Amino acid sequence: MEKRLNTKTISELSPLLKNKEVSPVELVDDVLEQIETLNNKLNAYIEVTAEKARKQAEAAESEILSGNYRGPLHGIPIAIKDLLYVADEMTTMGSKIHRNFRPAYSATVIERLTEAGAVFPGKTNLHEYAWGATNNNPHFGPARNPWDPERIPGGSSGGSGVATAAHMTIASLGTDTGGSIRIPSSFCGIVGLKPTHGLVSKYGCFPLAWSLDHIGPMTKTVRDAAYVLEAIAGYDPKDPTSFAAPTTSYALTFKESVKGVKIGIEPYFFDHVDKEVEKAVKQAIASLEREGAVVETVRIPTLQYAQYAEMITILSEASTIHHNHLVEREEDFGDDVRFLLKLGELPSAVDYLEAQQIRLKLDHEFMEIFNKVDVLITPTIPFLPPKIGQDTVWINGEEVNFLDHIIRFTGPFNLTGLPVVTVPCGFVQGLPVGMQIIGPAFGEGTILNVADVFETLHPELKYPPAVLRK
């Protein structure tokens, strides 16, 4: 039997839509039906905008039929993390305080996806104010992992990860301040891309920490991530951190080979890792080596201080953003976010500036490393997703604090702003494992090519989550 349209990828759907073999209306109806079937169980969406999505799909169909095809995202449903502004529409930030907030303007990424002809089925669930990695939201309920609904999907972009993995959208947007695209992508078994800081405008995105925030795609395949990135990347004068870097048709630059690509392995990223997770990642690296990649060990000494610098930076910046509400409406925050915001009032200016010196040192060391290798590869997360409500996880028989370890491997690349893609690389106990591929600044083409080669080599990793097999 032919797969339902919502189970397909952008790469599969765009030629069908372009050639008028399927209708954007048929596609969005399949997506909305899947949302209706699964959202009560998985809680991926805070708001479903079905009427709007159908109108957008009808407009896309009319344009395509008249010969005005805009490109690979035309008619494609893309879910939006609910802290990206859409003009005059509820944007909650997953919070009580902003529960009825309606911005007067749309985020730049929303405007660019609209120009590309995308369809928006709704706003996805997230950790309150994006300040957390579980997506256990006290105001809207937890998003649930489609591989095991008793487990977290990761956060803060948990709803986007769940919706994409469970075919409740074709792709989605997330944000990443310490790992919030890559963590749920890894836990949910999809592709997540954190672009170079400044490549994608953050205008119209409610901030968590100004200097660490990124917006990026969460997709079913690497090529799909490239298509979404092409649409949202580019200079924006409304974002003071936006960088006028050249953009490209990333999907068209795939070489479909890793022969001669130099892969760096830093021992820091293989210390205190679940042994089965480590095994899956090392087997993935070995498969790239068999295709002609060259693997070598590298050393980045300042990584030992990266977690401290990341936490001081994110704590200080987040608490500055929320200071007035913390003073005036403290009880309206969830317990975990309130605790982190109060904690963020404690670091001194000395602490913050010391963290920025560590950051500068890391920048320099990574620049030196990327003179020697093309990419780095690491596990995305050192452990498997815990059950909802658990504050601890197990690593090789040792019970450790979740928060102490969840961004240990993702956070350094928010500090440095380097591009990272996470791709599924195996399974442990029936749960997906992700690996990160990191490149130099504006090296999206390189990391996406390596990820695409790996994905092509391993079609067996495209296995449906448990919730879709029942």
TrEMBL record:
A Pfam family the protein falls into: Amidase
Xref: Gene3D superfamilies: Amidase signature (AS) domain
Chain segments annotated as coiled-coil in the UniProt record: 28-63
Keyword Manganese in annotation: no
Keyword entries, A-Z: Coiled coil
Statement: the UniProt record of this protein carries the keyword Acyltransferase: no
Chain ranges of the Amidase domain: 26-448
Domain of life: Bacteria
InterPro entries assigned: Amidase (IPR000120), Amidase_CS (IPR020556), Amidase_dom (IPR023631), AS_sf (IPR036928)
Family as reported in the entry's similarity comment: Belongs to the amidase family.
UniProt protein name: Glutamyl-tRNA(Gln) amidotransferase subunit A
Lineage: Bacteria, Bacillati, Bacillota, Bacilli, Bacillales
